[in-house]
Design a protein that fits this description.
globular, 14 helices, alpha/beta
């Protein structure tokens, strides 16, 4: 038997003394001094987590959060920085929002990071649910935010997401490609290729086969560098509501990341197993699957409540509960009601060490997930307290959880 692989996902927050202080310091997301302190303390957390035996460290892609909730516009830059400060731990992103990204640039950037980490890298992709910025950064393809409701906008978002992810895989794994999609083409314009390229002779002789035609036009592209890992780094996909996403992950051997309530997660885990094995992947229950939870481990339940109220209620009440894709109802304006709502989501775990052990055993008795992702709102929750709770999980909770010795590999 083995232990689940623990990924620590930090949601970068500019700390304030509660909601009213956040309003008083508006726009606190633009506070450079506060961000400077947080991003360098983050490196301290990464190094400490590496020493604890945490399998992976990850973060998000979110933009334009002037209120300071999720100041995480470029996970790749952070991943590359962390690679210089870790020995054994994997790093990655959960993840790049593809409707707002150029697939060639993502393939290039992630391949470089894969080399910088000596192959200890994983890549996460998400559909993007925050129209505040996805509608702006995705304007080139008129990409709407994901609503996970089967609407026309949601279907369009999925189509763009799947098209671009397929292109990234092709860019990673093929010597040369023609990306002729509905929403993105390369070379561009696709009908003629890039005409009049002065370096066509050497590109034809020393480049990839088929890149340059007999008239000197660029007709295919070779995206370089290729990843260190073969055929490519493990791919993780965020899941909130859509069974279609599970079927898509299973068919392609990708790693689904579940943010759902526990009963739904178990059903989706079984669906993933069935669909993956139909596609010929020969997996076991829980293999390549990642359950995501926000965790708090405190000396007692009163302290647990105090921490949630101080470090999590603001963002839950005013932000997370506003989005239907998060599987929660909009929280009552009072902090006390929001706390009760948060506890009832089953996404929030916590209490004492014994509470945490009982919670996780209850899940793993039903499905032994290969990966656990634990979320903290750093730096709203201070560095030392994040590390204290992380160490308790690694030393007290993780030893109580067993999984088969999965032989997963990237596909």
């Amino acid at each position: 038997m083995a232990k689940p692989k623990v990924i620590v996902q930090l949601y970068p927050m500019i700390p304030t003394d509660g909601e009213e202080d956040r309003k008083a310091r508006a726009p606190v997301g633009a506070d450079s001094d506060a961000y400077y302190k947080a991003v360098h303390e983050w490196t301290d957390i990464v190094k400490a987590a590496d020493e604890m035996g945490v399998w992976g460290m990850s973060t998000i892609e979110h933009h334009l959060h002037s209120e300071g909730y999720e100041v995480g516009p470029n996970p790749g830059v952070l991943n590359a920085h962390w690679a210089a400060h870790t020995k054994n731990m994997h790093v990655g992103a959960l993840g790049y929002v593809l409707a707002t990204q150029d697939p060639i640039r993502v393939a290039e950037e992630t391949a470089i990071i894969d080399h910088l980490t000596h192959g200890k890298y994983f890549v996460g992709f998400a559909r993007g649910y925050q129209k505040r910025w996805t509608d702006i950064l995705g304007q080139a393809s008129d990409a709407p935010a994901s609503t996970s409701d089967g609407s026309a906008a949601d279907i369009l978002n999925r189509q763009i997401f799947e098209e671009r992810l397929e292109m990234i895989i092709d860019c990673w794994t093929k010597d040369s490609v023609e990306l002729n999609g509905q929403f993105y083409q390369a070379p561009y314009p696709i009908e003629t290729g890039v005409q009049g390229y002065p370096g066509d002779d050497i590109a034809r002789a020393a480049g990839a086969e088929g890149e340059v035609d007999e008239d000197g036009n660029i007709r295919r592209i070779c995206v370089v560098p290729k990843p260190f890992q073969k055929p490519h780094p493990p791919v993780f996909i965020g899941v909130h509501k859509s069974p279609e996403t599970i079927e898509y992950c299973a068919k392609n051997g990708f790693h689904p990341c579940y943010f759902n309530p526990t009963d739904v997660v178990i059903d989706l885990a079984k669906m993933y197993l069935e669909e993956a094995n139909k596609a010929g992947h020969n997996l076991q229950l829980g293999e390549r699957q990642n359950i995501v939870r926000q965790t708090r481990i405190a000396p007692n339940r009163d302290e647990f409540k105090r921490r949630v109220m101080k470090y999590d209620i603001d963002i839950f009440k005013n932000f997370y509960s506003a989005f239907a894709s998060h599987n929660v109802e909009r929280a009552d304006p009072s902090d006390e009601a929001a706390f009760e709502a948060m506890k009832n989501t089953s996404f929030m775990t916590g209490g004492t060490v014994d509470d945490a052990i009982a919670y996780w055993r209850g899940i793993f008795d039903q499905a032994p997930f290969e990966y656990i992702t634990l979320i903290w709102h750093f730096a709203q929750q201070p560095k030392d307290l994040v590390l204290e709770e992380m160490q308790l999980f690694m030393e007290k909770v993780l030893p109580e959880l067993d999984v088969p010795d999965y032989a997963s590999a990237a596909e």
